[in-house]
């Protein structure tokens, strides 16, 4: 099972696909990839389509190639999942962020 966390503050995610740019808000993140909220009205992402993904975490800028993992329209707003390409340096940075965010969430639960 892969640990997935929700960002504390909104994080904008830019997707380069089909010679176009799309910007979404991050819904969640794991070392495998990110989920974003949004309705891709101008773009019909297909599973496994290649993408370039870019966003900023508190511990640095992330830029990676990847692919579309899923598109869910049952949720409101719709959700799109993207996988990071395997073997990228991104996983270390993302894992550091997830560890930090997990500690914040556990503190919030203990205090609440």
What does this 3D model show about the protein?
Helix content is 20%, strand content 43%. The protein has 112 residues and is an alpha+beta fold. The chain has a six-stranded antiparallel beta barrel with strand order 1-2-3-6-5-4. Strand 4 (50-57) and strand 5 (60-72) form a beta hairpin.
Topology:
Layout (H helix, E strand, L loop, with lengths): L11 E6 L2 E10 L3 E5 L12 E8 L2 E13 L6 E6 L5 H22 L1
Antiparallel strand pairs: 1-2, 1-4, 2-3, 3-6, 4-5, 5-6
Quickly list its features:
112 residues, 43% strand, Thrombin, subunit H, alpha+beta
Can I get a quick summary?
The chain has 112 residues and is of the alpha+beta class. The chain has one helix at 90-111; strands spanning 12-17, 20-29, 33-37, 50-57, 60-72, 79-84. The longest helix is centred in the C-terminal third of the chain and has 22 residues, at 90-111.
């Amino acid at each position: 099972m892969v640990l997935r966390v929700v960002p504390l503050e909104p994080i904008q995610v830019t997707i380069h696909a089909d010679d176009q740019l799309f910007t979404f808000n991050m819904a969640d993140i794991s070392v495998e990839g990110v989920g974003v909220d949004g309705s891709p009205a101008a773009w019909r992402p297909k599973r496994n389509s290649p993408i370039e993904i870019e966003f900023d975490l508190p511990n640095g800028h992330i830029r990676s190639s990847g692919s579309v993992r899923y598109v869910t329209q049952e949720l409101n707003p719709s959700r799109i999942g993207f996988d990071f390409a395997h073997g990228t340096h991104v996983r270390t940075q993302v894992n550091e962020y997830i560890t930090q965010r997990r500690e914040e969430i556990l503190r919030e639960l203990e205090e609440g």
